[in-house]
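User: Fold this; tokens only.

Assistant: Input:
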Amino acid sequence: MDLQQRVTIAFTKKFGAEPPLVVRAPGRVNLIGEHTDYNDGFVLPMAINREIWLALRPRDDEQVSVLSLDFGETAVFHLTALENTKSGWAEYIKGVAWALQQNDYTLRGFEGVLAGSVPKGAGLSSSAALELVTARAFQQVSGFAWDAPQMAKLCQLAENQWVGVNCGIMDQMISAAGQSGHALLIDCRSLETQSVPLPPTLDGSETAVVILDTTTRRGLVDSAYNERHQQCEAAAAFFGVKALRDVSITEFLTEADNLEPLPRKRAKHVITENLRTLNAAKAMQNADAMLLGQLMNESHASLRDDFEVTNDALNIIVEIAQAQPACFGARMTGAGFGGCAVALVHGEMVNDFVTAVTQQYQQQTNLIPKIYLCQPSDGASVMSNA
């Protein structure tokens, strides 16, 4: 049973009628462009076919009631009396309601049933998917126009100020504006986007994007993330610019020796990663899977050596992936210190790739990876409106 059927059946059972509305929003994986978003740079994520689905109907009052099948809990709140009770997943829904109302959207209540297939805690943006499916639900029942960049910004506001997670715009933007069959080059300063197709192999076969979850997690990501943030700001201040996005590689090479060693390494990663991301988008437009893979490999080395946000498990799984004949390139993806890597793989050799990576990673780490084959998917959308 797929998720659309699951939420539809659960809704019908709970409310005694079929839902007039079903909406969905995807998680994401970032192909390249890591730790560039908060430096006003470029990112190249794709929405994935792991999603959150919500079957719902409008209410005549200002109450919102949502049953999560994944958590076995129902969140109930009133739009006129929003209160942050630190109640886990429900705060993302409340936060979106708060952000919309803060920006003069008039909202109507709804009741619904929610379920998802985005792995939690794996760095695939289950939180952004939940925010965007909520925004889509409010848009449908309240009757305002759908503006993907605006909804992404308001969902980011919800996560930053209501939930309290200082994320960049990438996750919400790709969940809002993803396009089937394509990744999305996002300028994190202007929010301009450009869709780029996954490149085919030399023999014309499709390439596949494979997510490799190391199953390792590290609790100190927030403090390390904030340190990197500050180091990048220090480097930008040294160059006299608003953000490292404004420093060319020539300027960096000219002045690098005058910069303290740690900010210099962080700046080197961000400045070269922006170049790699723009070149990766060109490689995809030129149907050059080899170049895209090479840029992914270079990105991982930079994240490992200059930004220092990998861990042993990430380095091991990436090296194993890169050594497989089916693999064009692989790199860590997300904040780092654990979580997932991403690989670009020959579509007809995926099964052999998955088997080899699983066996070798287990041999080297005694850990069993979780591996997800992903298709690029559409952003937040309405699936039925009877």
